[in-house]
Amino acid sequence: MPTPRLLILATALALALAAPVARASQALHQTLRDLTTGSSDIVIGRVERTLTHWNDAHTRILTDVTVRVSETLKGTGEATLTLTQLGGDLDGFRYSVPGSPLFRSGEEALLFVWRDARGRAQVNGLAQGKFDIATDPATGARTVQRAPGGPQVREVSTLGVVPAGEPAPRLRLDDMVGEIRNILTEGGR
User: Fold this and answer.
1) Are 62 and 54 within 8 A, CB to CB?
2) For residue 44, which of 88, 15, 79, 9 has the smallest C-alpha distance?
């Protein structure tokens, strides 16, 4: 007959083995419709500055990204938008969140934004919600694409991902903006 101590130990071991395996978080693929309907703000703007700081409890590093908005497709239409991201380099510490977008002062981007319970603006879908804007030197057309190393896309509506090893095409900004406006007109909030 097993002792109570052995029975408790066997039960604890059985429960531990039956517990689900913890998995890393992952961002699910979002189509242009998903990003558009799931964002509180959609803007085109230029990064004016980034400011890395500790949270009030000094337990997390945050980076505020100030964006000068040149065009608002959805949202309040403010002249500037400050994004607050988890992560950054500060005081000899680095805190990074895999899949988060990176920002450089002076760069222009199309941004899909959501707001947390405190109203802080953040990029929707991690790096999925940031599209770098460039000007094609041959045609002068403005184009968009996600940053290299992230989930680059091959076409506008589904935002299908480019297979590894294939070059990512530059997509026309006007085509993406047109699709976003169509989604919003169809009731995409």
Assistant:
1) yes
2) 79
